């Protein structure tokens, strides 16, 4: 980040605060009071405050440029974050596909094991006369 971009961010954060609004309003009131009442005949900018209008116009121009610089930087940050999110999503998608394939393989193995167990139980049931029936002496 360049010095200018850093300065634009600092100024944007400063100008976009209630503190700035309060100071700005206080400055405007002070300017009007000093030039209208305190200095009255010797005012450097008597009513209708043409010098103040000039300063405000310059301030508005600078604020516009500063806000555009800061907005451009925010757009670049948002684009970088979106690119990172997309790359993360693509990686996550491939990982999910891999895990789904592994899960499907495990399900197939479990189904095979279940069928083998059922066959083994069926064979064991035929060999000893069935489950629960004792074989041997005493019957």
Automatic annotation (TrEMBL):
<feature type="transmembrane region" description="Helical">
    <location>
        <begin position="47"/>
        <end position="71"/>
    </location>
</feature>
<keyword id="KW-0812">Transmembrane</keyword>
<protein>
    <recommendedName>
        <fullName>DUF1003 domain-containing protein</fullName>
    </recommendedName>
</protein>
<keyword id="KW-0472">Membrane</keyword>
<feature type="transmembrane region" description="Helical">
    <location>
        <begin position="20"/>
        <end position="41"/>
    </location>
</feature>
<dbReference type="InterPro" id="IPR010406">
    <property type="entry name" value="DUF1003"/>
</dbReference>
<dbReference type="Pfam" id="PF06210">
    <property type="entry name" value="DUF1003"/>
</dbReference>
<keyword id="KW-1133">Transmembrane helix</keyword>
């Amino acid at each position: 980040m360049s010095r200018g971009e850093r300065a634009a961010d600092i100024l944007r954060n400063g100008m976009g605060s209630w503190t700035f609004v309060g100071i700005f309003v206080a400055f405007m009131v002070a300017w009007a009071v000093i030039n209208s009442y305190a200095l009255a005949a010797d005012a450097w900018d008597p009513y209708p405050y043409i010098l103040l209008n000039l300063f405000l116009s310059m301030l508005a121009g600078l604020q516009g440029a500063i806000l555009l610089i800061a907005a451009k930087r925010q757009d670049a940050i948002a684009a970088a974050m979106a690119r990172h999110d997309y790359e993360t999503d693509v990686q996550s998608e491939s990982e999910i596909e891999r895990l789904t394939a592994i899960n499907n393989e495990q399900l197939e193995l479990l189904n095979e094991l279940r069928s083998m167990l059922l066959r083994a139980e069926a064979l064991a049931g035929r060999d000893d006369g069935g489950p629960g029936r004792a074989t041997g002496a005493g019957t």
